[in-house]
Amino acid sequence: MNDIIYTSDRKEILRYVPKVKGRVLDVGCSSGNFSRILKDEWGCEVHGIEVNPKAAEIATEKIDRVSVSYTH
After folding, report:
1. Residues 69, 51: contact at Cβ < 8 Å?
2. How many whole angstroms separate alpha carbon 47 and alpha carbon 59?
3. Using CB atoms within 10 A as the burial measure, which of 9, 10, 33, 71 is most buried?
4. In 1-72, which residue ranges form alpha helices assigned H by DSSP?
């Protein structure tokens, strides 16, 4: 498993994401910094999926719900 935790907010990606209201699923949410932008600036309810348990734990403080999921 990759132990890297990405902490960049990746704001440059926002222009590629349709602006939505409601729920968003962030697959590979890492520490939740990009997801927090969607939550705070767009008013979305954000659910994240992350394979790194340490990153997922950090993300739980920033977004609505985080699930840890592993692929085999």
Report:
1. yes
2. 10
3. 33
4. 33-42, 53-59
pLDDT of the residue at 21: 84
Q: Contact 40/46 with Cβ under 8 angstroms?
A: no
Strand partners, 27: 49
What was the pLDDT predicted at 1? 53
What is the Rg, in whole angstroms, of the alpha carbon atoms belonging to the chain?
A: 12
Low-confidence ranges of the chain (pLDDT < 50): none
Give this prediction's pTM. Answer: 0.84
Q: What angle do CA 70, 48, 60 make, to 5 degrees?
A: 100
38: helix, strand or coil: helix
Report the chain's terminal Cα–Cα distance, integer Å.
Answer: 10
